[in-house]
Automatic annotation (TrEMBL):
GO terms for molecular function: gluconolactonase activity. It is an enzyme of class 3 (hydrolase). Residues 57-324 form the SMP-30/Gluconolactonase/LRE-like region domain. Its EC number is 3.1.1.17. It comes from the Bacteria. Keywords: Hydrolase, Signal. This is Gluconolactonase. Residues 1-25 form the signal peptide. The lineage of its organism: Bacteria, Pseudomonadati, Bacteroidota, Saprospiria, Saprospirales.
Amino acid sequence: MKKITLKVCLFALSICFCGFTQVSGQEIGTIEFISPELSSLIKKEAKVEVIAEGFQFTEGPLWLEKEKMLLFSDIPANTIYKWTEAKGKEVYVKPGGYTGSEPRGGFMGPNGLYKTKDGKLWVCQHGDRRIAAMDAPLNAPKSNFVTVAGSYDGKKLNSPNDFFMSSKGELYFTDPAYGFEGGMKDPKKELPFQGVYKMDKAGKVTLLIDSMQAPNGIGILPDGKTLLVANTQGRGRGWYAYDIASNGTLENARVFYNPGNIREPGGCDGFKIDKKGNVFAAGPGGIWIFTKEGKLIGKIKVNNLTAANCALTANGKTLYITATQYLLRVKMR
């Protein structure tokens, strides 16, 4: 098995959640047009609006087009919420990421969410240390879960964070250590690294990358040939690109974009890719917007909050952003 290795120093786990900033008034952020190209994606008068609040730390947004509903995670609250235009926020499933009986704290709850072709909800579960399928219909959710992927090489996963299903039906996912109460030094941690994996249609899990300090957001460009992975923190913080070889291994590891030493809330986190390959990526200070070639064309800044992830509607005209205790929306076009 060939693994791509990046030279990343493993510093102590240290995430900046930057407190729960109180934001008053109508303005929650601004949109920075770095390149004229952004004008084809976002109109100049677009606003960053709060559509729900009162959470602990929001993540994993998933837009369901048929239901006209957004699902998203509140990790410390161990809850999956839903949001609709008609009713606003509602609890969808609780517990959503840790279903054990022993009391615990930390980032134990759900994170990334995915709807399968047959209508099942899959969840990255920090506390249960697995990717799981909800064993209930979307319109009648229950906290009943079945393991989809929970181990590698006979050892339990750390805390699956985010995932992406390829057109070939192969699941790519990241597995940092954020779900452990003791971080990377937690005695319950069984794997000596934080991995990026691929699970094939038969359920076989293959390790692709073992050298990132904190692999996080993951996705594939529309060409189906390029994998993008975010490394949240440390000396190797940034977004990376890899060629997907015909046999499923990764080749030609390279930097997609290096954010440099910018010091703003948040790290390189979850992202979504539109149909043209534009990347909307949670990064320091908000959402960074790139072309498929890795050119930075704009930012959605979110006023000292930690933007953790985002979701696009099916037509690509509306962006939802999970940012600390808020759920935000930008009607782009």
